[in-house]
TrEMBL record:
Cofactor: pyridoxal 5'-phosphate
Recorded GO MF terms: pyridoxal phosphate binding; valine-pyruvate transaminase activity
Residue stretches making up the Aminotransferase class I/classII large domain: 65-403
Gene Ontology biological process terms from the UniProt entry: alpha-amino acid metabolic process
Naturally occurring in which organism (per UniProt): Tolumonas osonensis
Keyword Transferase: yes
A GO cellular-component term linked to this record: cytosol
Domain of life: Bacteria
Designated name of the protein: Valine--pyruvate aminotransferase
Pfam families linked to this entry: Aminotran_1_2
Gene3D superfamilies in the cross-refs: Type I PLP-dependent aspartate aminotransferase-like (Major domain)
Length: 413
């Protein structure tokens, strides 16, 4: 059977597909240590709260209503109103439910946005998505309908104490030409755990506004929920910003509920696309979380339960790693948020892909770093083949075992 161009493009072995395959394989092999995927932790306190809320929403009929009905293509009205109210109250953002669209996970929102605001235009122009700070999220890499739809900029690297480092946007090197359709950053960043500072975000916003292109902030791990963030930063939104959020990293990835906050024109466009592709996004997540959004409990649980849980785990894993493989053999990106540690083996004698294969043979699954540089013009930049991403949020024993395997394989190299 011959696939169309679309079929060929989207059936190639994409980085994200490899990740999902490995995740599946690991699930079949109970011995494998899965530090590769992006599954959030099942935090016992949160799981109990989810259970109670599910029971409550079953009893009051909201869950059944959500199962019995289609929502509109823009998503559940009551949930969007509750979200708009929360952001108006907490941050003074001038938004209503018309500034919000729900999607089946934020992943699908990125696909629609990348192809709405970049790619091939009717007048023959071609526009790209700019990632100003590589490395960036692997899941963006194959989300363009056009070829070469992404361009990324190398980071500036700050060397910090204790074998840590931090990426910063290299504004001197950042070129935003007329071929850029939008700027996109994840904050906190998957894979590095970097959190762009308020100053960096303000500067990127100024650049985007000056160019009359939107700035997408992927807030999947960000503040105010799920707040997997260990530094003091402010949520950011204005009418030129497209803020993408999700219920996934709160601990509910199976709900597939993404949230886009943007100018009404963008929201209307997303809603039209959603009608064609999905009819409507799922109403289960909205039914389950609406009361938490109305009461503000979603912020309280994020700050009081989720953030400390991940921060403690991140610090513990950094400590174990530094003991096992001291600097300068291993440098770790300063963990500021998200579920991952980004490990840099400067001068590694094999590529991160080869390291991945060797670790896999020993029963440890991580993600090789080079996948996280979509659009980077310099394919020879050694740094991208010297890093790996590790999910630190899995059970303690697994993380410890994984680090022991990493130590053994790295020492053998
Ligand atoms: N953005 C980032 C940075 C992510 O890491 C992920 C998932 O891992 C997503 C977006 C997509 O999440 P979801 O589609 O579950 O909302």
């Amino acid at each position: 059977m011959q696939f169309s161009q679309f079929g060929e493009k989207f059936t190639r072995l994409a980085g994200i597909s490899q990740l999902m395959d490995d995740l599946n394989e690991g699930l079949k092999n109970p011995e494998a240590i899965m530090l590769g995927g992006g599954n959030p932790a099942a935090i016992p306190q949160m799981v109990e709260l989810f259970r109670q809320e599910t029971q409550q929403r079953l009893d009051d009929g909201a869950l059944l209503q959500a199962m019995l009905n289609y929502d509109g293509p823009q998503g559940h009205d009551g949930f969007r109103q509750a979200l708009a109210g929360l952001f108006r109250r907490e941050y003074g953002w001038n938004i209503t439910a018309d500034n919000i669209a729900l999607t089946n996970g934020s992943q699908s929102a990125f696909f629609n946005l990348f192809n709405l605001l970049a790619g091939d235009y009717a007048d023959g122009k071609k526009k790209k998505v700019l990632f100003p700070l590589a490395p960036e999220y692997i899941g963006y890499a194959d989300g363009g309908l056009a070829e070469d739809q992404f361009v990324a900029c190398k980071p500036h690297i700050d060397f910090l104490e204790n074998g840590l480092f931090k990426y910063r946007v290299d504004f001197d090197a950042l070129e935003v030409g007329d071929d850029i359709g939008m700027i996109c950053v994840s904050r906190p960043t998957n894979p590095t755990g970097n959190v762009l500072t308020d100053e960096e975000i303000i500067k990127l916003d100024e650049i985007a506004q000056a160019k009359n292109i939107p700035l997408i902030i992927d807030n999947a791990y960000g503040t105010p929920f799920p707040h997997i963030i260990f530094s003091e930063v402010n949520p950011f939104w204005n009418h030129n910003t497209i803020l993408c959020m999700s219920l996934s990293k709160l601990g509910l990835p199976g709900l597939r509920c993404g949230i886009v906050i943007a100018d009404q024109k963008i929201i209307q466009a997303l809603s039209n696309i959603s009608g064609i592709i999905n009819l409507a996004p799922s109403g289960i997540g909205p039914a389950l979380m609406q009361r938490w959004v109305e009461s503000g409990d979603i912020l309280k649980h994020s700050a009081d339960i989720i953030a400390p849980f991940y921060q403690q785990k991140a610090e513990q894993a950094v400590h174990w790693l530094q003991e096992a493989i001291p600097a300068p053999k291993l440098r770790i990106h300063k963990p500021e948020g998200a579920l991952f540690l980004w490990l840099w083996f400067e001068g590694l004698s094999v590529s991160s892909q080869e390291l991945y294969e060797r670790l896999k043979q020993h029963g440890l699954i991580i993600v090789p770093g080079h996948y996280f540089f979509p659009g980077l013009p310099d394919k020879n930049w050694r740094h991208q083949y010297e890093c790996i991403r590790l999910n630190y949020a899995q059970p303690e024993e697994k993380v410890k075992q994984g680090i022991a395997i990493l130590q053994q394989v790295i020492n053998a190299l």
